[in-house]
Amino acid sequence: MERERIMKASNHPSTQPRLFPVIDMEERVPPHHLLRQINEAVDVSVIHDGVAPLYTEKTGRPAADPERLLRLMLLSYLFDHSERGVTDPDA
Predict the structure, then answer these.
(1) Please, what sign has the CA dihedral across residues 16, 19, 23, 28?
(2) Rounded-to-integer distance, Cα 73 and Cα 19, Å
(3) pLDDT tens digits, residue range 2-36?
(4) Residue 35 CA from chain centroid, whole number
(5) Burial 49-81, CB ≥16 within 10 A → b, else e
(6) Domain map of the chain by residue range?
(7) Helices 34-41 + 66-78 axis angle, to 10
């Protein structure tokens, strides 16, 4: 705590690396990539209306976003990755 206060007061940048680096997906995915074309052509947000009756806010942990799950399934199918291969780039 004291070190942080001193670093801020002296205008020195922190020398400690970030634990969770920020990844800008706009920089990582090329402009004409297939995934960008699919994103523009297909509205997957409509899945929320279809699955809304299956979700409840009253019990249990919050569910995973169905739109995100659909996108992951599409990635898995298009690029022939397992579930682990889609979520873990080192797998």
Answers:
(1) positive
(2) 28
(3) 556 555 655 666 677 778 778 888 888 899 999 89
(4) 14
(5) eeeeeeeeeeeeeeeeebeeebbbeeebeeeeb
(6) 20-87
(7) 140
